[in-house]
Amino acid sequence: MVKAPEPLDFSQTAVDSIPPDGVEAIAEILRSGNLFRYGETGGIGSNVAKLEQQFAQMHGKRYAIAVNSGGCAIFLALVAAGVTPGETVMMNAFTLAPVPGAIEHCGAEVILLDTGDDLAIDLESLQHAVKTTGSRVLLLSYMRGHIPDMDEILKIVEDNNLVLIEDCAHVLGAKWKGHAMGTLGSVSCFSLQTYKQVNGGEGGMILTDDADIAARSILMSGSYMLYGQHLAGPDEEVFSKWAAITPNYSMRLNEMSAAAVLSQLPILQQRIEKWNSIHDRIAGGISSIEGLEVPNVSRMIQPAPTSIQFIAQHTISEITSAISTANSLGLELKWFGDEAAKGFTSHHGHWSYLPSQTLESTDSLMKKLLDIRLPSTLSDEECDALLEILKYAFSGD
Ligand SMILES: Cc1ncc(COP(=O)(O)O)c(C=O)c1O
User: Fold this and answer.
1) Is 20-266 CATH 3.30.70.1150?
2) How far apart are CA 287 and CA 309, in angstroms?
3) Which residues approach ligand 1 with their CB closer than 6 A?
4) CATH topology for 267-393?
5) Tell me: the pLDDT tens digits for 298-331?
6) CA distance linking residue 64 with residue 302, whole number of Å
């Protein structure tokens, strides 16, 4: 009988604090009372407009539109890219609830695609769906940072004239063969929610080089007729095409969230390095525990991981017992195979508003797939303590 390790005394929901210049910028916003991005007079120097400009520049994209959440960014991107009610949209089955939610929000029909052993989208399933459904839109989630072979994806997109919308909620700062994620499709969407690479509390971002998509997104996000205050938007004549025929869905980002994110962009790279070293240390430890496997990451990918996923070759009852042991020792272990959706973790079978689909590979993977959030604040000692608990939880003692 192995002795139980000491419980963890850190919170896995810990996050980095907002850098001092962000705190000062937020205090200034509060002192001034100007929490709204648009000013009736001026407003051109708003934090939201500056954030859009910096986000566009750091990705080498022409246009950026900040909105109130990642889910709304996806909704607006779909509509702006021309998705209409009743149309089909293909998406990874392995993703989070806001993704099918965004498709449903625009009245379109969800087509789920299967998952490969690398936890990214299964290419055969994509090719099959393109042939059998005639769908023209691929909403590609890099769920938990898992990126498919983008050369293959881009070939399928080009050969079939698909519209590629990238869901980059988990990959800000990650790269494929040196190309930043969010620069490979027609339009890309990011989340600025607290547990992402940058923390705005709430928020989302849309990036595109397409002037019509940008103008429609800005108008739909709720710019009234103040779109001239954007610093990363298209020219006036593009708006004049769309202004009168585009509804306002009021999905703007607020000044405080933008100021918080602006203060984190200069340290993003440093944070990503820290996350990679935490991830590598934990991945090495997990792989040395019998029956646990961390999927391989292609050498083409430069990751920016905020969590780790691993496969447990155990029975359902062994997994549930390991989860409860780990949780009782302060390690929050999440499982994609649970009968009910919990917290941020769900699988397609939980989205009962969708027609049910059998996806053999996804369904068998989810039953074995576990997930741990990795706060960037974790020290080496905390990583090792976490691994001790995991080892103990899966030892069956
Ligand atoms: C894969 C994925 N896409 C999109 C989103 C949407 O982000 P938000 O929570 O900002 O709406 C999330 C949220 O966590 C997500 O996990």
Assistant:
1) no
2) 11
3) 69-71, 95-96, 98-99, 141, 143, 167, 169-170, 191, 193, 204
4) Aspartate Aminotransferase, domain 1 (3.90.1150)
5) 999 999 999 999 999 999 999 999 999 999 999 9
6) 23
